[in-house]
Write a structure and sequence with these properties.
By secondary structure, the chain is an alpha+beta fold. It has a single domain, classed as Rossmann fold, CATH 3.40.50. The protein is about 40% helix and about 10% strand. The strands form two sheets. It has a two-stranded antiparallel sheet. It has a two-stranded antiparallel ribbon with strand order 2-3. It is elongated and about 60 Å long. The two termini are about 15 Å apart.
């Protein structure tokens, strides 16, 4: 039997969070494909989204603009959904230098890269969970 998404916390939405959660849920029920949750740092956006995920029980993809924020979101969501498949999928390069040519000096720079094996394993785990589970 498939495991259902389950938010595990003693906290409850506070301040502007209940209204934000309600507005997002209403948008989803109307079939809105795009919504934005705005808030200052520390305002509880992640917790609000976790409540939306818990209410809808939908598999969810969270996109972050950089690896630092992706790691923070991954860590927080793993704490909030400890019984579910919270996965991490980012570029596995610790370093990447694309090939380049500098015409003024007729210099060719070879491509160079360093792959992070741990992150690569996490990417494979994320892909596997997407194919095999609904609580992701």
């Amino acid at each position: 039997m498939a495991r259902e998404l389950e938010l595990v916390t003693d906290l409850s939405p506070k301040g502007d969070q209940p209204a934000a959660i309600s507005a997002l849920l209403e948008g989803l029920s109307r079939g809105e494909r795009h919504q934005v949750l705005l808030g200052i740092t520390g305002s509880g956006k992640t917790f609000s989204i976790a409540n939306v995920i818990d209410t809808t029980k939908r598999p969810t993809l969270i996109i972050a603009p950089n690896k630092t924020l992706a790691a923070q979101l991954y860590s927080e969501m793993r704490e909030l959904f400890p019984n579910n498949a919270v996965e991490y999928f980012v570029s596995y390069y610790d370093y990447y230098q694309p090939e380049a040519y500098i015409p003024s000096s007729d210099t060719y720079i070879e491509k160079d890269a360093i792959v992070n094996d741990k992150v690569d394993r996490m990417r494979h785990s994320a892909t596997r969970s997407l194919l095999a589970r609904r609580d992701v």
